[in-house]
Structures are given as C-alpha cells and as structure tokens.
C-alpha cells in the first residue's frame, strides 16, 4: 500500500522538477536570435508511429513523445510549427528534397542520412529489450545463452547486424513485426524475442502477452535525434542549444510517459480462480483462528511485537548506515560525480564543487562538456560504451577540467559503471594532480640536468658565457679533451678567444656561425655538426651539443661538448648512399610491377573477353539450332550461359584489381570511385571533396597516389572503428595534397614505428614519388593522413 502511494508522489516530484527546469530559457546568441526573427514559422515533418507520434482523429490533435518534444522546442525557440504527417521514411526524405520540411524529430543517424540531414545530439535513448517467458526474477545475459538458442528479432538492419556480430553463437530469425516476434515466443517457435522498447510499451498492455517478461537488454540502444535541413546549418545550431536547455529530468519524464511498459492483468478466468482461492483461504484462516486458544493468540501477539521491534531496529541501523554513506560521499576529499547517459550530472559531492570553484548544487544538471570542452556527445557515448563493457583502457586517464573562473585544472579521472534501480550511471572520480605535475616537472628538470652531464662527459667539454645580451660570448672553460680531438691544448684555444671557430673547416664556417648566433639570440640550446681541421691538417667530423642555462645574476651559460663523429659520419654517408640505391631499385621494381599489372589486366580483359564472347555466341547458336531436339540439352546450355556470364564478371574483377580502368579518367574520378566502393563494403559514410578542373598528373604518380589511398582505407576498415571518413584532394602552392581523415579510435604513430608494414610501404611509395607523408593521430580522436606530391616531374 505504501509503495502505491509513493509512486504517484515520485511522479509528481519529477513533474514539478521538469516544470522548474522548463522555466530556464535557451541562451541563443544575437545572430541566432536574428535568424529566428526571420523564420517565425517552421515546417515539421513527423512519421505517424505510436508512441512517438499519433494523430487523434476526433480531436484532430497530434500526441506522442516526438510531438511533445517539438512543442517544447518551439516554446524555447519562440516559433510556430506547421505539421506534415508521413507514413514512411522515404516520404519524409522526398518532402525534405522538395523543401517542404525544415526539421523532423525521432531520426537516427545513418550513413545515408548524413547526406540529407544535420543531426542534433541524441535526446532520447530507446533500448532494445530481450523478452521471454516468466521463469524467475533474474536477468538473462545473451553471452551465457546456449549455442544455437533461437531468438526472434524485430528491428532495423543495423540492430540485426549488431546481433549477428556480437552474438554469433545464437540462431537469429528476423520477424516482420514486433507482434510476430512475441507470438513466436508464445508459440515456442523461439526461446526469446528482441523487440524495441517503444514496441514493448505498446504491446505490453495486451493481455495476450501477459506470460512474457523483460529478461535483459542487448546493449545496443536507438539514439533519437532531431534532423534539420542540410542547407540551414544555423537551424541545427539553434536546435542543439534548445535541446541542451531542456533539463535531463524533463527528458526522463518524457521517456517515462510515452515509453512506460505496463503489464496487463490476467484474464477473467484467472481472476475468478484467484478469487475463489482467496475466498477458500480466508475461510480456512477464519476456521483456524476459531480453533486457536487464547494463549496461542497471546504468544503470537508477543512474537509479532518482538518481530516488529526487531524490524524497526533493523530499519534504524539501515537508515544510520545510509546517513553515514551519504556523509562519507559528501565530505570525501575525492571528487565524485554521478553522470547520466546524456552526459548531464545527477550528483556532485562538495569536494568536486570546491575543486572546480562552483557553489553548492551548481553542478547538478550541467553537461560534462561545460567541464571538459573536448568531450562532445559522440566521444561521451563512446566512453559510456567502453566503460559499460569494462574496457580497461578507458577506466583511468588524465585530462584538464575547466573551472568556474575559466582556468584549467589538471585532474586524474577514473570511471566506473553503476546501475541503481532502473537507472544507469557513470561514476566519475576526480583527483587534483596539480602538485603531482609540479613535482614531476621538477623531477624531469633534475633528470635532464643529470642526463646532460652524464651524456657529455666524452669529447671536449666547454663552457660559453655571456653576461649581457649586448656583449659577445666568451669561452670560460675548455677541457683537456681538445688535445685528442684537434691536437690543440686548452690554453691555445682560450688564448685570444680562438675558441672552436678556429677549428672549423672553411666551407662550414658560415653554417657554424648561423647555428651559434641563432642559439645566442634566443638563449636556447645549441647543436651543430660539421667538419673541423686538426693541428696536423686531418679532416674530421665533429658534433657540438650545448645546453643553455640562465643564472640568477642574469648571465647565460652554455655547457656543452664537442666529440668526434668521423666514423659515424662515414657510416652514415655510406648508409644514405645504400638507401638511395635501394629506393631507386624499389622505384624501378614498383614501376615494372605496375606496368606488368596493366599489361596483364589488358590481356585478361581483351583476350579472355574475346574468347568468352565467342564461346557465348557459339553456345547461343547451339541453343537456337539443337535445343528443341532435347529438353535436357536446353537446360545444360542454359547452365553453360550462366557459367560464362559468371566468368565474364570474374574477368572484369581480376582486371579491375590489377589496374582499375577508372585511373584512365583521372585521379579525381578514381578517388570518388574508390570511396563509393569502400562505403558500399563497410557502410561507413565517406565524404569526398575533389577539384573539378585538375591538371593532368603523370601516370606513375596517379597510380602511386591511388595505391596509398587503397592502403589507407584498408587500415580504416580493419583498425579504426570509425563512424565517418573524409577524403580531400586539393592544389596548394603547386603541390597536390591528398588528406584522409577518420573519427575512429586513433593510435600512437611513435609506438607503431616500423612494425606496421602498411605504413612503411605507404611512406616508401610516397618518397619514391618525391613527395611527403604526414600522419597525425592520438588515441580516441581519430587519424589524419596527408600526402603531398609535386605536379611536375
């Protein structure tokens, strides 16, 4: 009884909280307000599908989750909405192309949709649930199901692909409707059914499905977004601002109102049977009570009082433990945040508020992007998914948070997943590491000094000093190593300020002075390599390394060392010559291989194509002349024609793999062709930007650039886990620049080194063509690969 009273009170509290949050307006910029003033009426397209949107015929009024959300956005933006109803997604997209629709709610981001819509951040998370017969109170983990368990699934192609990829040990059977999937479970044709949360909320009120229950979640939610016209980027920004102005509690209330799952009452026969059983039990209870003695009644009353007293004491202990836990959280020195799936903060203790300079309670309902500007919604959802799957790489990392006064605070962040009742949270533990960074910087500086001293012991050690910027530097010290290096004593080099310059070869003196003066002008470290002459006239290679340091008196000193690197230099020059010869040989072999591929492709296409054409004509002639004589002969000739057609396609595929004919149309067309093939094979959107009028490119460079593109897209498909890929070809200062970027998981190029033959092969191919290749990537932020080639030979 108490639970039935608490539920309405909780719903009323959520409603009042949502109304309180609704009073806050959206913070539009002056430019956005001007745009809204010019567009007071917007065309809204909505697909009629319960419970998202449904038209009440009698009242001619639109209701549903998406309709209520759009009315709330219209209130925040101060615009009038004109509704257009559609039955399918194709009708809605056709209206968008005809510009009869400006925005539409309830869309999910797809590769095809990115070409038509600008998508907002998700405002509602609709789960895909696992339903089965009521067999207990525990949940079902799909990874633990027996091999070959039959599951009826209803959903989009993306959901089915996720189920096939994540749970290959299950037998999936696609159902056209959610009702048929549930009937398959009732009819024992399937053990479980996968149905969206919206369909479950609609079908759960049907008594026919009273025997079914929700037993799990597949972990692949549908994220609903608001789509806007592609040619109105201002409207997309305004919708994002308005969505962020809606409190998280109001969106949760919207979800609970329209996607609430209600379980139907049993049938009339079950009600009658239950009432009869209750009546019979009451009669038995009354009979038993009449037969029990007064002493037994007194004992039972005493036992009841004792049990009630113990229960009250247990509740007091639990309440005290809860108060102690809450006090520990609020007064912990470790910052603690509870964050909802939409990145809004649900709880923040006092430690994190003081750490970031916010007043008490000011962090609640704020999105995490206010504290970490680089944490956009897609990156947050990726973090949520990785931590939910217990990916250890994402559990702990170091970053910088934006404080209330605008300063940056270095922190150590630890993430943990928590499920409380029916709500999921990501618990964020924040630790201030300012002092640790200072100590680390001091330690690194001390280690650098010690390392400089230890590394510069061999050779000729020297000190160069300059008291003021206007004075010339003077050698204050030269070690005894000058005897073995150049044959001069330290006193000889210090007399008359001869210094190191007197040892430098005449051809390298200008470079020596440039490097020294550059270091002196900016008070920075000095490094130089060049030739010197010993006292006996012997030519040697020397390496100078000096560390700049400014003393408290203002004097700048350079402590350094000069060592003999003649042997290393000779080996280096020999190695450079050897590498140059190997690279020329590789270039020749690559050219020969590409020519051989082109020759084989032409031979395969022309010679085999002619033979297959003649064979197909001869088969057709045999069919016309003799097929009527024997019905079996006609079937065999038909099979032969099918095999010939398959062989035609195989010949085309082999010729295309050896050398795509699209290269003859230019590198720009080849890039667009390869992008479309990649998009069709991986379902990853590939955005291409190439110039229309591109100067002709030599065949060797066009082939090399195309092979680099193929290898880069192969790496994206295998390792990046990207959502989108962008290809851009441009002319910059006489150079042809090809950039390939993705928003995948990224990597550390320094850690990969030469272990990746794909990267090494691309780099060598570009160097053979006389160009350069640059790779920029970090874990979690994607990868950018840029190739630059000269247009001329």
Automatic annotation (TrEMBL):
It holds the Pfam family HisKA_3. The keyword Kinase applies. GO terms for molecular function: phosphorelay sensor kinase activity; protein dimerization activity. GO terms for cellular component: membrane. Residues 599-793 form the Histidine kinase domain. Residues 395-445 form the PAC domain. Residues 1-22 form the signal peptide. SMART domains: HATPase_c, PAC, PAS, PBPb. Residues 446-523 form the PAS domain. InterPro entries: HATPase_C_sf, HATPase_dom, His_kinase_dom, PAC, PAS, PAS-assoc_C, PAS-like_dom_sf, PAS_fold_3. Keywords: Kinase, Signal, Transferase, Two-component regulatory system. The keyword Kinase applies. PANTHER family: NITRATE/NITRITE SENSOR PROTEIN NARX-RELATED, OXYGEN SENSOR HISTIDINE KINASE NREB. This is Histidine kinase. The lineage of its organism: Bacteria, Pseudomonadati, Pseudomonadota, Gammaproteobacteria, Pseudomonadales.
């Amino acid at each position: 009884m108490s639970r039935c009273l608490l539920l309405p009170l909780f719903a009323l509290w959520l409603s009042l909280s949502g109304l309180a949050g609704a009073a806050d307006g959206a913070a539009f910029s002056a430019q956005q307000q001007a745009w809204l003033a010019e567009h007071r009426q917007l065309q809204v397209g909505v697909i009629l599908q319960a419970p998202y949107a449904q038209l009440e015929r009698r009242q001619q009024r639109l209701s549903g989750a998406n309709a209520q959300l759009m009315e709330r956005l219209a209130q925040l933006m101060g615009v009038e909405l004109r509704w257009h109803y559609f039955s399918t997604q194709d009708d809605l997209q056709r209206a968008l192309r005809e510009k009869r629709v400006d925005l539409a709610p309830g869309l999910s981001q797809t590769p095809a949709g990115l070409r038509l819509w600008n998508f907002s951040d998700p405002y509602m998370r609709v789960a895909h649930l696992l339903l089965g017969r009521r067999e207990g109170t525990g949940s079902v983990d799909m990874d633990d199901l027996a091999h070959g368990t039959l599951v009826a699934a209803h959903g989009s192609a993306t959901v089915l692909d996720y189920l096939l990829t994540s749970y290959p040990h299950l037998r999936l059977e696609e159902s056209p409707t959610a009702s048929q999937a549930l009937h398959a479970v009732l009819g024992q044709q399937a053990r479980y059914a996968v149905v969206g949360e919206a369909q479950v909320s609609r079908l759960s009120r049907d008594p026919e499905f009273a025997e079914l229950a929700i037993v799990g979640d597949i972990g692949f939610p549908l994220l609903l977004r608001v789509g806007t016209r592609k040619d109105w980027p201002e409207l997309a920004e305004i919708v994002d601002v308005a969505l962020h102005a809606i409190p998280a509690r109001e969106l949760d209330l919207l979800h609970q109102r329209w996607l609430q799952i209600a379980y139907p009452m049993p049938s009339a026969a079950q009600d009658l049977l239950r009432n009869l059983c209750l009546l019979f039990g009451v009669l038995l209870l009354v009979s038993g009570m009449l037969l029990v003695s007064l002493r037994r009644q007194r004992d039972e009353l005493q036992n009841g009082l004792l049990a009630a007293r113990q229960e009250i004491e247990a509740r007091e202990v639990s309440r005290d433990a809860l108060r102690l836990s809450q006090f520990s959280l609020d007064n912990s020195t470790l910052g603690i945040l509870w964050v909802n799936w939409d990145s809004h903060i649900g709880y923040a203790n006092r430690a994190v508020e003081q750490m970031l300079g916010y007043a008490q309670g000011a962090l609640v309902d704020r999105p995490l992007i206010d504290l970490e500007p680089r944490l956009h919604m897609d990156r947050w959802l990726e973090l949520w998914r990785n931590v939910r799957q217990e990916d250890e790489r994402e559990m702990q990392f170091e970053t910088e948070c934006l404080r209330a006064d605008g300063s940056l605070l270095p922190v150590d962040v630890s993430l943990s997943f928590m499920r409380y009742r029916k709500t999921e949270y990501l618990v964020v533990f924040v630790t201030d590491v300012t002092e640790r960074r200072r100590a680390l910087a001091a330690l690194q500086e001390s280690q650098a000094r010690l390392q400089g001293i230890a590394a510069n012991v061999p050779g000729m050690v020297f000190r160069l000093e300059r008291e003021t910027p206007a004075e010339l530097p003077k050698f204050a010290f030269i070690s005894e190593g000058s005897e073995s290096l150049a044959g001069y004593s330290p006193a000889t080099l210090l007399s008359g300020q001869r210094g190191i310059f007197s040892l430098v070869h005449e051809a390298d003196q200008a470079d020596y002075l440039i490097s020294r003066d550059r270091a002196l002008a900016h008070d920075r470290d000095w490094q130089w390599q060049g030739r010197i002459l010993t006292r006996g006239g012997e030519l040697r290679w020397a390496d100078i390394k000096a560390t700049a340091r400014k003393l408290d008196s203002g004097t700048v000193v350079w402590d350094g060392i000069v060592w003999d690197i003649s042997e290393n230099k000779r080996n280096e020059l020999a190695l450079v010559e050897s590498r140059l010869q190997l690279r020329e040989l590789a270039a020749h072999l690559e050219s020969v291989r590409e020519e051989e591929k082109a020759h084989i492709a032409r031979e395969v296409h022309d010679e085999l194509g002619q033979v297959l054409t003649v064979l197909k004509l001869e088969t057709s002639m045999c069919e016309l002349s003799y097929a009527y004589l024997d019905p079996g002969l006609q079937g065999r000739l038909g099979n032969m024609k099918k095999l010939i057609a398959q062989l035609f396609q195989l010949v085309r595929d082999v010729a295309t793999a050896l050398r795509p004919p699209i290269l003859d149309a230019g590198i720009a067309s080849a890039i667009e062709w390869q992008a479309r093939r990649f998009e069709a094979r991986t379902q990853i959107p590939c955005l291409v930007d190439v110039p229309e009028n591109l100067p002709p490119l030599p065949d060797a460079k066009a082939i090399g650039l195309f092979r680099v593109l193929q290898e880069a897209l192969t790496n994206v498909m295998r390792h990046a886990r990207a959502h989108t890929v962008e290809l851009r070809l441009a002319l910059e200062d006489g150079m042809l620049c090809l950039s390939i970027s993705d928003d995948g998981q990224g990597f550390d190029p320094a850690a990969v080194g030469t272990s990746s033959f794909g990267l090494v092969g691309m780099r060598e191919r570009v160097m053979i063509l006389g160009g350069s290749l640059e790779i920029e990537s970090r874990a979690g932020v994607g990868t950018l690969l840029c190739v630059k080639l000269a247009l001329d030979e």
